[in-house]
Write a structure and sequence with these properties.
13 strands; 2 domains; 4-stranded antiparallel β-sheet
């Protein structure tokens, strides 16, 4: 009985993980399909509904100071990595990630609009041609980070090695927005936010072009399907070994 329970535990865990990976892959496939079928719309022509708009970040945007580099920007994302020893190797794990922004104004040849960058409502993806390598957390940056999050502050008080990666959204950057939006016309700029009753749950905002986004999503789909297929294969292989051994 004990071997059968162990089999159920191991095979069940592998199967659940495989199902979750397949589910994640299908969600990405749906997002890629939305990108492929959606035409880019001029800002002056958007209304409530599913749209894709592209433009550049206007100089009228409200800028803030980035957390680590202290550079002026419209928005930034920062991720902190903690190192730990595993045998003779030093590995790292992400322990904190956040997005901060000022008022982002996007403009094209037809007009401008305010884009909601609140991380609760927006999936902000800042990816650049030159991959940003993590940098060491210095004493000054450690002090700045400790004022951001209580849990992170407790970690940073430990005498461990930390690195961070910071991406900036600056005036003049290309920006692409796709999703179900609600439009409100304000005195100077149109304002777009995510439709709270819609699916997907968040606006997708990225400095990548649609073509680049599709390629990125395609790579993620292939990778996740391969991982899901691998673990499903393990379940089948493990089941065959167990039942053939049990009947021998």
């Amino acid at each position: 009985m004990a071997p059968f329970i162990s089999f159920l535990f191991i095979a069940g865990g592998l199967l659940i993980f495989s199902i979750l990976m397949f589910r994640s892959a299908f969600k990405i496939i749906a997002k890629k399909r939305d990108l492929n079928k959606t035409q880019t719309t001029l800002i002056r022509n958007i209304d409530n509904g599913f749209y894709e708009i592209s433009g550049i970040v206007s100089s009228e945007s409200t800028q803030i100071s980035s957390l680590a580099s202290r550079k002026e920007c419209v928005g930034f994302s920062i991720e902190v990595f903690e190192f730990y020893n595993s045998g003779n190797r030093a590995n790292s794990v992400s322990v904190f990630k956040t997005v901060k922004s000022g008022v982002c104004i996007l403009e094209d040849e037809s007009g401008s609009c305010i884009v909601d960058l609140d991380p609760e409502r927006t999936e902000l993806s800042l990816i650049f041609d030159k991959v940003t390598q993590p940098s060491e957390v210095t004493d000054d940056i450690r002090t700045a980070l400790m004022n951001v999050d209580d849990d992170l502050a407790k970690r940073l008080q430990q005498k461990k090695r930390f690195q961070y990666k910071e991406e900036l959204l600056s005036v003049g950057d290309d920006l692409h927005v796709i999703g179900n939006i609600t439009v409100s016309d304000e005195e100077k700029h149109r304002s777009i936010i995510r439709d709270p009753s819609s699916h997907p749950a968040k606006l997708s905002v990225s400095n990548q072009s649609e073509e680049a986004l599709v390629k990125t999503l395609q790579k993620r789909i292939v990778l996740q399907l391969l991982i899901a297929g691998f673990f499903l294969g393990l379940v089948i292989w493990f089941s065959v070994l167990f039942f053939t051994g049990a009947t021998a």
